[in-house]
Amino acid sequence: MAESKKAWGGRFSKPTSKQFEKFSESISFDARLYDADIRGSIAHATMLAECGLISKTDCSRIVRGLKAIRREIEAGTFEFREDREDIHMNVEAALVERSGDAGKKLHTARSRNDQVALDMRLWAIDEVAHVYGLLREAQAALVGLAEANVALIIPAYTHLQHAQPVLAAHSLLAYVEMFERDIGRLGNASCGMLVSPLGSGAVAGSGLPIDPDATARHLGLPEVAANSIDATGDRDFILEMAFALAMIAMHLSRWAEEWIIWSTEEFGFIELDDSVSTGSSMMPQKKNPDALELIRGKTARVYGNLVALLTLMKGLPPAYNRDLQEDKPPIFDSTDTVADSLAVAIEVIDSVRFRPDRIAQQLDRGHLDATSLADYLVLKGVPFREAHRLVGELVKDCLARDCRLGDLPLEAFQKRCGKICEDVYGFLGPENCVKRASGRASTSHRRVKAALRKWRKKLAG
Ligand code: ARG
Fold first, then answer.
1. 305 with 239: CB under 8 angstroms?
2. For residues 95 and 88, is the Cβ–Cβ distance under 8 A?
3. How many angstroms does the Cα of residue 328 sit away from the middle of ligand 1?
4. What CA–CA distance (Å, rounded) separates 442 from 143?
5. Which domain holds residue 147?
6. Which of 30, 123, 329, 404 could form an SS bridge with 26, CB 3.0 to 4.6 Å?
7. Dihedral, 88, 92, 318, 20 alpha carbons, nearest 10
């Protein structure tokens, strides 16, 4: 078996096999932690100097070296080496090459176990902020579309069958609410990220006179981990993030599904922009909603990543185990996938066009005003169950005559129920239904306009 150059210091008499080195490296995917890693190391070195464990001169050498390494990485000139395994050892080895003995002191009172637990937290904090911003943008895009179509009425569906008329804006605002809760979930997930694990060392903490509170302060983290075994061994904050991301993907997927349906020839409620549609390699006439289908499809891997992470953790004895390195590909993938999906979703929303002519045809079908008619009967003193049955019979009358409820003459209504008068027509037709649905959470113009104003204000703030 070929052997690599890497040896683990004095304990080992043989270097790592090439095969195993390839198997165990993580630099190919954890290089993206470089900024978190360098920030963590700068804070750690600063604390070591403050505690008198390294000299001020060594600290400045370390900090200067780390900043130079960051510049090289960002310029693309840094050589990431597989034989240096991961981001931590790549940065540290490069630092030692640069600053000699000073660099060799950086790892005092630190293990890669608390180091990676910190890096993942710092990385996650930034990514959560990025996804948060995209969710806000998606909300703003939906609110903008709702405002531009503020009077448009569409059929609402339950069981994908015609149900009741609603404002298109009301339907769009439903997603704004979902994204708001997604934002809340991201916020909750970030609580576990705002804790500094530095000082926990490999598993037992440190016997050296360090000051973990100072390190946390330098990092801007409000808390220091209370238990070194827990701090190095758990990844619950990554799992919470993976769950919050899976929930966003689920909401996006339901939205995509609805708009795929809306964009069919059969519905024709929306026209997707050419810039987010694809053609067919064989059928020249086709315009396919691939952007939406991919958003729906990619949800599968975001779920898969969550399950992978849950499974990764379930059998691990405390504290750090190398299995934990496998937390990275799934959470990186979920983050990138959800961020990309949101960015594409924003483009789709910003460029879509409603087709009021096609929507109007559907508003006349499926007796969308039947519930409003039942409400009318209730207001006339008919018990709701009775009203429900009566309206069902009137719908049957309409089906026999192939007409809408509003097309029935007054006599036809009165044959079924003597309490119905001329004013019944004020409860029929999509406009009347929407106008009357004026309670909290309902779809009336007044309610929806107020909701739009509320969201505008919130999103501007
Ligand atoms: N690359 C490792 C990870 O991602 C870093 C920690 C390694 N620690 C260890 N004891 N081997 O988990």
1. no
2. no
3. 11
4. 17
5. 113-360
6. 30
7. 70
In the predicted structure, residue 3 carries a pLDDT above the cut 80: no
Closest protein CA for atom 7 of ligand 1: 112
| CATH number of 117's domain | 1.20.200.10
Residue 341 in contact with ligand 1 by CB distance below 6 A? no
Given the CA of residue 202, which atom of ligand 1 is nearest to it?
10
What is the model's pLDDT at position 308? 98
pTM of the model: 0.96
Give the model confidence (pLDDT) of 318-365 as tens digits: 999 999 999 999 999 999 999 999 999 999 999 999 999 999 999 999
For residue 179 and ligand 1, the question of a CB distance below 6 A is answered with no
Tell me whether residue 1 is in a domain: no
The answer to whether residue 11 sits within a structural domain is no
Are the CB atoms for 408 and 381 separated by under 8 Å?
A: no
- Same structural domain, 257 and 399: no
Q: How many angstroms is it from 415 CA to the middle of ligand 1?
A: 80
Q: What is the best residue among 123, 321, 325, 326 to mutate for testing ligand 1's pocket, by most ligand atoms within 8 Å of CB?
A: 325
Strand pairing report for 270-271 and 353-354: antiparallel
Residue 384 lies in a domain: yes
Answer whether 232 contacts ligand 1 (Cβ < 6 A): no
Q: Tell the residue nearest (CA) to atom 4 of ligand 1.
A: 325
Q: Which residue's CA lies nearest to atom 12 of ligand 1?
A: 325
Strand duo 161-167 + 153-158: pairing: antiparallel
Question: How confident is residue 9, by pLDDT bands cut at 50, 70 and 90?
Answer: confident
